[in-house]
Task: inverse folding
């Protein structure tokens, strides 16, 4: 198994309208799409929300990476199908797949297009203390590092006979320990090392600080924000009035 | 290249290449033979393709083109689990593999895939813990071991599986003199047991002293393969990597510049000591 799909959440510099947009707008986008996805449990509205993501993905020239992130999560998708079909229904299972796809895509787009440095700046502009903003952007920056480490751990364990595929749910969960424990230990060790490195470079010695880069909410960001707010309002309206909406919105599989 | 006519190589690598999914070319048309019982060093600067090459040996990465044969069998269709019984790779960072509650459990985990009877597993564990002086840590968490001890445990957890090929990635990195000495004894012992050993290292002095054959890599290709003393004394080759000439060679060159013309073939520390001893003796007898 490869953990390559985690790269689908790694920032890549590209020239696109989406990349140039303010990170605050993109954070709002991820949150609003997640909320919208959580509002519905029927296939059709979730499908429409999912479809509305595609132009945004194309706008950011992210199609390849997005497909990779979806492919990488195929195991999770299978898991959702099996559990929901067994305990509820196939229609509900499909709806839940759309829901998870929307949420993953929304955050994948965010991570792929937001530079970690800009993220810290945007959080500071939202009046968040610098220490918190920095920690958040640092965590964000370490996602690919952890992905790389996870791959190394997997390689090391496989070199002594570890196998990913095991039969039975409990065995599969047990089977994650050889990967998760070293990953957590290494991450904690790294966190201590980073903290020491930061302190040795005088982190937090001055309350006020200046910034080399600045971010600005431009016209296209406002247009995007207005679209998002309208989208959210529209989703909430449909959810509230769902019972009097056209019948096709409530369509589900006959099974 | 080592010349062996009678036996077939244990590892035959035939024109393999590998590119990472992001397009980086890691290996280009690598051809290599490694015979049973050999001790081979792989050297070269970071990014030269050393680690990628060893990862192909147990299927962690599959070559984009070309074939690898181990024991004359093509490994392309073999699973990592099967290959790991023949090729044991010991990675640089032991904390990437230690996770169990105790040192004993850690070894047990490595033996799991062999489906051995409980008693046999216990015998193997006792044996390996004793061999590696880890007996006193048997019930201790592997996470509380010192750097050197956890490296020992990582090695033990691979060697207990008894693979015929042992691959070490930077085994001397961050090790003190005692630990390096332990490692030298270990490879000597394992070679006597008939194991084939491949070592990736940047440690020129270590390779010069203990590894008979060296493969030098640069930009995903093998640029030299031969007796270590010949490869590492070649200034032209060394300049193509981030390595430096062995200290004894540097000393040798300084002596040559100072009109010690007959020192050219003195290439090891012991030879140099003998040479200097003779020289002093000669000088004092002349006086």
Result:
């Amino acid at each position: 198994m490869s953990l390559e799909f985690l790269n689908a959440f790694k920032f890549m510099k590209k020239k696109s309208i989406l990349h140039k947009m303010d990170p605050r707008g993109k954070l709002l986008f991820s949150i609003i799409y997640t909320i919208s996805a959580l509002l519905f449990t029927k296939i059709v509205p979730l499908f429409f929300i999912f479809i509305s993501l595609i132009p945004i993905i194309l706008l950011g020239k992210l199609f390849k990476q997005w497909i990779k992130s979806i492919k990488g999560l195929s195991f999770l998708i299978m898991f959702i199908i099996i559990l929901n079909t067994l305990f509820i229904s196939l229609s509900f299972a499909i709806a839940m797949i759309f829901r998870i796809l929307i949420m993953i895509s929304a955050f994948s787009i965010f991570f792929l297009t937001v530079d970690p440095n800009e993220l810290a700046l945007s959080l500071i502009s939202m009046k968040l203390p610098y220490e918190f903003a920095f920690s958040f952007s640092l965590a964000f920056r370490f996602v690919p590092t952890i992905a790389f480490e996870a791959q190394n751990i997997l390689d090391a364990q496989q070199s002594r006979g570890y196998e990913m595929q095991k039969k039975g749910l409990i065995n599969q969960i047990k089977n994650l320990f050889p990967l998760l424990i070293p990953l957590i230990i290494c991450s904690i060790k790294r966190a201590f090392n980073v903290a020491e490195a930061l302190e040795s470079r005088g982190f937090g010695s001055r309350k006020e600080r200046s910034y080399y880069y600045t971010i600005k909410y431009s016209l296209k960001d406002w247009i995007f924000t207005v679209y998002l707010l309208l989208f959210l309002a529209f989703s909430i309206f449909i959810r509230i009035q769902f019972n009097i909406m056209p019948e096709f919105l409530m369509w589900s599989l006959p099974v | 290249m080592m010349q062996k006519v009678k036996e077939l190589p244990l590892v035959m690598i035939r024109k393999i290449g590998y590119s990472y999914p992001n397009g980086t070319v890691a290996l280009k048309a690598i051809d290599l033979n490694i015979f049973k019982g050999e001790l081979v060093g792989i050297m070269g600067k970071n990014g030269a393709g050393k680690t990628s090459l060893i990862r192909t040996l147990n299927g962690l990465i599959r070559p984009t083109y070309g074939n690898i044969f181990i024991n004359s069998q093509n490994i392309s269709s073999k699973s990592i689990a099967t290959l790991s019984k023949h090729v044991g790779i010991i990675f640089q960072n032991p904390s990437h593999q230690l996770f169990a509650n105790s040192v004993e459990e850690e070894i047990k985990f490595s033996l799991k895939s062999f489906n051995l009877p409980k008693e046999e597993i216990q015998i193997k564990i006792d044996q390996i813990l004793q061999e590696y002086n880890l007996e006193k840590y048997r019930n201790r968490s592997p996470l509380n071991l010192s750097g050197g001890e956890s490296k020992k445990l990582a090695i033990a957890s691979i060697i207990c599986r008894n693979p015929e090929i042992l691959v070490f990635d930077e085994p001397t990195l961050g090790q003190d003199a005692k630990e390096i000495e332990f490692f030298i004894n270990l490879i000597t012992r394992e070679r006597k047991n008939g194991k084939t050993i491949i070592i990736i290292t940047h440690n020129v002095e270590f390779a010069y002293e203990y590894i008979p054959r060296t493969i030098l890599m640069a930009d995903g290709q093998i640029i030299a393969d031969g007796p270590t003393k010949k490869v590492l004394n070649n200034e032209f080759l060394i300049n193509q990597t981030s390595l430096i000439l062995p200290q004894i060679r540097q000393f040798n060159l300084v002596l040559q510049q100072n009109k010690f013309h007959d020192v050219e073939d003195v290439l090891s520390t012991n030879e140099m000591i003998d040479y200097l001893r003779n020289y002093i003796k000669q000088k004092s007898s002349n006086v």
About this structure: The CA atoms of residues 97 and 226 of chain B lie 33 Å apart. The beta strands of chain B are 11-19, 25-34, 39-44, 65-70, 73-74, 87-90, 165-169, 196-200, 213-218, 221-227.
